[in-house]
Design a protein that fits this description.
The structure holds 2 protein chains of 2 kinds. Chain A has 2 domains: about 90 residues, Beta Barrel (Elongation Factor Tu (Ef-tu), domain 3); about 130 residues, Nucleotide-binding domain of ferredoxin-NADP reductase (FNR) module (Rossmann fold, 3-Layer(aba) Sandwich), CATH 3.40.50. Chain A has 9 helices and 15 strands. In chain A, the strands form 3 sheets. Chain A has a 7-stranded mixed beta sheet, with helices on both faces. In chain A, helix 6 runs parallel beside helix 7. The longest helix of chain A has 13 residues. Chain A is globular. Chain A starts with 12 loop residues before the first strand and ends in a 6-residue tail after the last helix. Chain B starts with a strand and ends with a helix. In chain B, the strands form 2 sheets. In chain B, strands 1-9-8-7-6-2-3 form a 7-stranded mixed beta sheet. In chain B, strands 5-4-11-10 form a 4-stranded antiparallel beta sheet, with no helix packed on it. Chain B is an alpha/beta fold. Chain B is built from 11 helices and 11 strands. Chain B has 2 domains: about 180 residues, no CATH class; about 140 residues, no CATH class. Chain B is globular. Classes of the chains: A alpha/beta, B alpha/beta. Chains A and B meet through strand 4, strand 6 and strand 13 of A and strand 4, strand 5, strand 10, strand 11 and helix 9 of B. Chain B: This is 4Fe-4S dicluster domain-containing protein. Chain B: InterPro entries: 4Fe4S_Fe-S-bd, 4Fe4S_Fe_S_CS, Helical_ferredxn. Chain B: Keywords: Iron, Iron-sulfur, Metal-binding. Chain B: It holds the Pfam family Fer4_22.
């Protein structure tokens, strides 16, 4: 991992927006290239880590690094415009400059996933934190068994990474099950209709030698964990990420804790066993 | 090594430090309020009063710039803050409750990532502690393991003496240097008698019992009645010598501005408010629970200490009269009750 070489731990690296991709009407991907040559060469991260992204004049926002560590030379973030910083980030165009601090936090234990079947379960805008790992695994495809992706959103329009969903669908070595909430399907919808936990139950992946990686809004996680339990997944076979409001990302500013666990330092990746041991405050 | 310094010589010491260009921060009155502030001359010092806010601002200011930015077309230039510009500082008249909080903050700002803003100021600051001879109803330092004569956190520790002046004990190399460089102002101790120490409320609660209850009772009906009065004003965090939560915000225009680190408080609803609208601590009692938990459990779990030094400021200032010492005492009692029930 490349630790920030700045002595000032709050000083971001500058990055140029290389590409802007609209995922949904209000969710956008920015592809970023670090301006400093040394940073460009030395910045490395692991799937699951996050960063603080700056729109100067508005502030910083916390998102995962949504691209895969296997794709070198750039990083991507993906966000919904809902506040002051994300509205400003949305105004950025190719060639514009923004700031990036990171990478921070822990990561998925990818080495421990080697040789296993993987089931990715994501809802809505929570696909990006899994997409980094999905591509990481697909780029090392031989190291894993079967790969299943269950992804859903409220409506067709709310599905992110639509082109990549198509790509995964067309690959012979991935099983993609896509779904939208009842009423979210248009006439051209060729996927499932139903909430993610229901569709996961119907998909019924075997828990044998399998790791499940779950990311979604709190309500989805709440209903998904019991489904996995029913499918005989042990709590140490299930990984998820927690997201909390953060400022520093460095274990200092004091707001992202769940009980005595700091999401920014001890997370954001946790096993279901770890999450169940936490107080219900996320 | 113990030395004596008269009040007159102590003032001369501070004036000499000021004339050397050092920042001498001590309790002084500003618009009717005693605060730790830089002195222009030692005579302004009000050493016999506990300042409204703690001494932590000498290292961790209420607001501070952490960088500036300048935009030119699509390009942006960032200007780092040079920590070497921080002045050599002497922080004076720090009571044991304030001084003991400083090592507590050291742990936060130096574990893992190093906050150079805090640590550089810390490195450049000599702390002159002062034994406490006045307690009021809000003081409870003795209940959290301190005493009014605890020199923890001080580089040089003063004990006020009958008839004026102080007995001085050096506690670190910084303290020794301060005395060695100003030898002529210090005298040999000669039968001076210390003023009687303050007598804060003691033994109101047992920290270990409180911690044991907190360990097991994140969910408990008692939380609904604890601090329901809290209005979330954050005053307790702002006057606390150990609270250290902060926000990072940009101030300026699209063209230029600065990024600042500002004090924040877990009592504010926005502190944990997600962009999605979800808030894990969506009600005031949950926010107050975090305050108690952080101080008497979470910080202890991580750093093996309590995040409270019993200065009592939060009790004195709370606009709705919440008394953290009373709450801890109540928790202490709940624990006793539970144990009795279990044993019967």
């Amino acid at each position: 991992m490349c630790e920030n070489t700045n002595k000032n731990i709050y000083l971001p690296y500058l990055a140029t927006v290389e590409e802007v991709i609209d995922e949904t009407p209000d969710v956008r991907t920015l592809r970023l290239v670090f301006q400093d040559e040394q940073v460009r060469e030395n910045f490395s991260f692991r799937a699951g880590q996050f960063a603080e992204y700056s729109a100067f004049g508005a502030g910083e926002s916390t998102f995962c690094i949504a691209s895969s560590p296997t794709r070198k030379g750039y990083i991507e973030c993906c966000f919904r415009s809902v506040g002051r910083v994300t509205e400003e980030l949305r105004r950025l165009e190719p060639g514009d400059t923004m700031g990036v601090r990171g990478p921070y936090g822990n990561s998925y234990p990818i080495e421990e996933l080697f040789g296993k079947n993987l089931v990715f379960v994501a809802g809505g805008i929570a696909l990006p934190p899994l997409r980094t790992l999905i591509w990481n695994c697909l780029d090392l495809r031989d190291k894993f068994g079967e790969i299943t992706i269950v992804y859903g959103a409220r409506t067709q329009a709310d599905l992110v990474y639509k082109r990549e969903l198509q790509e995964w669908e067309q690959r012979g070595d991935v099983r993609l099950v896509k779904t939208v909430d009842p009423g979210g399907n248009g006439p051209d919808w060729d996927g499932q209709v139903g909430f993610v936990p229901t569709i996961l139950a119907e998909t019924a992946p075997s828990a044998d030698n399998t790791i499940a990686l779950v990311c979604g809004p709190p309500v989805m996680i709440k209903f998904t964990l019991p489904v996995l339990e029913k499918l005989c997944f042990g709590d140490d076979q299930v990984y998820t990420t927690l997201e909390n409001r953060m400022k520093c990302g460095l274990g200092k500013c004091g707001r992202c804790n769940v009980g005595n666990v700091y999401v920014c330092k001890d997370g954001p990746v946790f096993t279901a066993a770890q999450v169940k041991a936490m107080p219900m405050e996320f | 090594m113990q030395n004596y310094i008269s009040q007159q010589n102590f003032n001369a010491l501070l004036d000499s430090l000021i004339s050397q260009g050092k920042r001498v921060v001590a309790p002084r009155t500003n618009a009717g309020t005693v605060l730790y502030e830089p002195l222009a001359n030692a005579a302004d010092m009000v050493i016999d009063q506990l300042p409204r806010r703690s001494g932590k601002e000498a290292f961790f200011p209420l607001c501070e710039d952490i960088m500036t930015y300048q935009k030119e077309g699509q390009k942006i230039e960032l200007q780092d803050i040079d920590p070497t510009r921080f002045l050599e500082t002497v922080l004076v008249g720090v009571r044991p409750c304030d001084a003991a909080a400083i090592p507590v903050l050291d742990a936060v700002f130096s574990w893992d990532y190093k906050d150079e803003f805090f640590l550089e100021r810390r490195k450049k600051t000599t702390i002159i502690g002062l034994a406490c001879t006045q307690a009021d109803d809000a003081c409870f330092c003795t209940a959290v393991g301190l005493t009014p004569a605890d020199p923890k956190g001080a580089d040089l520790f003063l004990t006020p003496l009958e008839g004026g002046g102080y007995a001085c004990e050096t506690q670190s190399e910084k303290g020794e240097a301060l005395v060695a460089n100003n030898k002529e102002l210090f005298a040999e101790p000669n039968g001076y008698k210390p003023l009687p120490l303050a007598e804060p409320q003691t033994g109101k609660f047992d920290l270990k019992k409180v911690k044991a209850w907190l360990d097991e009772h994140f969910e408990d009906p008692a939380w609904d009645s604890i601090a329901t009065r809290c209005v979330g004003c954050g005053a307790c965090a702002f006057v606390c010598p150990a609270c250290h939560c902060f926000d990072i915000v940009d101030e300026g225009t699209e063209k230029q501005g600065k990024r600042r680190k500002n004090w924040d408080a877990c009592g504010f609803w926005k502190f944990t408010h997600h962009a999605s609208g979800h808030n894990p601590r969506d009600q005031q009692p949950k926010r107050y629970r975090n305050r108690i938990m952080h101080k008497f459990k979470y910080y202890d779990d991580k750093f093996g200490q309590t995040l409270c030094t019993g200065c009592g400021r939060c009790i004195r200032l709370c606009p709705v009269g919440i008394d953290i010492a009373d709450i801890l005492q109540d928790i202490d009692k709940i624990e006793v009750k539970v144990k009795v029930e279990e044993n019967s």
